[in-house]
Design goal:
- The protein has a two-stranded antiparallel sheet with strand order 1-2.
- Helix content is 55%, strand content 5%.
- The chain is mostly helical.
- Helix 1 runs antiparallel to helix 2.
- The longest helix is centred in the middle third of the chain and has 36 residues.
Length: 131
Amino acid sequence: MAKEKSSHFTAEFILQVKEILLKEKVRLENDLAGFTRKNPKVAGDYNSDFPDYGDKEDENAAEVAEYAASLPLEDNLEKGLRDVNKALDNISKDTFGVCKYCKKPIEEKRLLARPTSSACVACKKTITQEL
């Protein structure tokens, strides 16, 4: 099955979205760098740092609490970074902005609001049963 081309977007629009995505990528990577390390064995994976406050019982409890709180944040930031990288990859392949369900162009307004969107509004509403 051939991929749909995103040539229905202007070069200026694609450049605008790419700039938004690149800024978001830097933000996500900086946020992740604040409390994680890149996993050298798995591309796009990060590992939360386990804090070290000391060896007292209350310090150990604080370490566990902070580590447990950082895991969902790490997961959300990783997912966001994967979505941004996928959108940038789609731009480079000229497949950006095509709904993965109906194969029609995603509205520019939606892509400006959420450049990582992979579904048009109609399909997304159908999927989430928001009709």
